[in-house]
Design brief:
By secondary structure, the chain is α+β, with helices and mostly antiparallel strands. It has helices at about 5-15, 105-115, 115-120, 130-135, 140-150, 170-175, 185-190, 220-230, 230-240, 250-260, 265-280, 285-290, 290-305, 310-315, 320-335, 340-355; strands spanning about 15-20, 30, 35-40, 45-50, 50-60, 75-80, 85-90, 95-100, 120-125, 155, 160-165, 195-200. InterPro entries: AAR2, AAR2_C, AAR2_C_sf, Aar2_N, AAR2_N_sf.
Length: about 375
């Protein structure tokens, strides 16, 4: 815990928001933003929370007598106001926090009147991570967080999946592949597994990136150009998702990254990679959207500075995605027609990453090989 002047602590207690979390079992792993703890027997919530966007996460745990294993992480984004009090009760059946008490004004006022007595049971917000959290989420507005998180309101590390076919009747089950004989191959075994889908309302609602990165009716030359410069795909995403506020795409990039880094949601990392490729390989867009790309460098500076060092080792070993993507970005951002302010900032960022991670962005690209593109149906090249 950060050492804090008593007067400052008192002011933060009076002005900050409070999460009153009742009945959370001892041993539960609970976190807010970039910090987490195991809950003790006296825990009843978190105090002195600065106003703004926060991510509350929790993992239920078995009792020590049953092994003490920690379950998958769940969490939710909260936009807290100064002096706000939210009350939640632990639901042991669902292993989740039920915030319905926060809608009961009588209970909230009762808690507010007894907040001083409750103070010894409230853990202070970890101010030592506040700067990190703000740097990772400063582009995420309350509206954007609401629009991107699942309709269920919960961000879960493990997908809640159900069979695509419910097979409620014996006749339906009889038509499916039998599982009472040995499989002759891995493919046969995979084919026998039931097809699963994510339960409706639990999906993260990210922007959809077009499968085809060229416009309808494009000529072979246009297809090749759009495959090398992804500006058409980027503009399509911006037009559909953020026509009035293109900068919100950086908020989505931050949201995806935080879902992975703090929420342990692998889908967040996959979407972050897709957005990275889209933004970093859009040469024409860099000439037109200076502010978006100046903001991108700032976002990436904080993201790449806060993840564990071995995180990059894994990425580099997997097709060198990050370094090759950034290599394209630096090549385009310092090319002809790009605003000089953006070019200079890109050069400084490149030097920073080279020094920090010893990455070589000037090595020869494997991408010099011909680009193989998919032609539209019915189009042939003589």
């Amino acid at each position: 815990m950060l050492d804090m002047d008593p007067d400052l602590a008192r002011r933060l207690f009076e002005e900050g928001a409070t999460l009153v979390l009742l009945g959370v079992p001892q041993g539960t792993e609970l976190g807010i933003d970039c910090k987490s703890w195991q809950v003790g027997p006296r825990f009843k919530g978190v105090k002195m929370i600065p106003p703004g966007l926060h991510f509350l996460s929790f993992c239920s745990a078995n009792s020590p007598s049953c092994g003490g294993e920690i379950g998958p992480k769940s969490g939710l984004f909260l936009n807290l106001k100064s002096k706000e009090i939210l009350v939640a009760h632990w639901d042991p059946k669902e292993e989740d926090l039920d915030f319905s008490a926060s809608k009961n004004d009588e209970e909230v006022n009762r808690i507010r009147d007894t907040l001083r007595e409750l103070d010894p049971y409230l853990g202070p917000y970890p101010y030592e991570v506040m700067r990190k959290w703000v740097s990772l989420t400063d582009q995420i507005s309350q509206e954007l967080a609401v629009n991107l998180q699942p309709l269920s309101g919960r961000v879960c590390a493990f997908s809640d999946v159900i069979p695509e076919l419910q097979l409620r009747h014996t006749k339906d089950r009889a038509e499916q592949p039998r599982n009472d004989t040995a499989c002759q191959s891995m493919r046969e075994g995979l084919d026998r597994l039931p097809k699963m889908k994510q339960r409706e309302g639990t999906e993260l609602r990210f922007s959809v990136i077009p499968e085809k990165n060229y416009p309808p009716g494009a000529s072979p030359a246009e297809i090749t150009r759009c495959s090398m410069d992804l500006s058409y795909s980027l503009e399509t995403v911006l037009k559909k998702s953020y026509p009035d506020q293109p900068i919100n795409l950086l908020g989505e990039l931050q949201f995806a990254f935080v879902c992975f880094l703090v929420g342990n949601v692998y889908e967040g990392f996959e979407h972050w990679k897709r957005l990275m490729a889209l933004l970093c390989r859009s040469e024409e867009a860099m000439r037109k959207r200076k502010e978006l790309y100046l903001g991108l460098i700032t976002v990436l500076y904080h993201q790449l500075g806060e993840v564990p060092p071995d995180f990059f080792v894994d990425i580099v070993s997997q097709s060198n995605f990050l370094t090759s993507t950034l290599q394209d970005f630096f090549q385009f951002a310092t090319g002809p027609g790009v605003d000089s302010t953006l070019g200079k900032k890109a050069e400084k960022f490149k030097a920073h990453l080279t020094k920090k991670f010893c990455w070589d962005f000037d090595a020869d690209l494997d991408d010099c090989a011909p680009v193989v593109v998919e032609l539209p149906e019915g189009v042939t090249v003589d």
